[in-house]
């Protein structure tokens, strides 16, 4: 299970670097049109949501450890929403 947490940490580090790079290279436009950074952030949030669903299904079929992984993904998704997309 330690390998799983290491992969999770490396995934989120790489995802954060990609989003940060796209935000710096293509910020939102002055007229309100989202730039490449916002689009990338929304893509990763949808991807994390899919990972939550996949891990919940795997928790029911394979083993209970996947529920903890789904919880970690859910917490990251909530924090990302709370920091970036909250009005």
SSE topology sketch:
Layout: H1 2-25, H2 36-61, H3 65-85
Helix pairs in contact: 1-2, 2-3
Shape field? elongated
- In round numbers, the mean pLDDT is 87
Alpha carbon gap, first and last residue: 37 Å
Query: How many helices?
Result: 3
Strand content: under 5%
Topology order in helix (H) and strand (E) letters = HHH
**Unreliable runs:** none
Count of strand segments: 0
Measured as a percent range, the helix fraction is over 70%
Evaluate the radius of gyration. Answer: 15 Å
For the sheet with most strands, the description reads: none
Question: Could you explain the architecture of this structure?
Answer:
With 87 residues, the chain is an all-alpha fold. Helix 1 packs antiparallel against helix 2 and helix 2 runs antiparallel to helix 3. The longest helix is centred in the middle third of the chain and has 26 residues. 6% of the residues are buried. The model has no long low-confidence stretch (mean pLDDT 87).
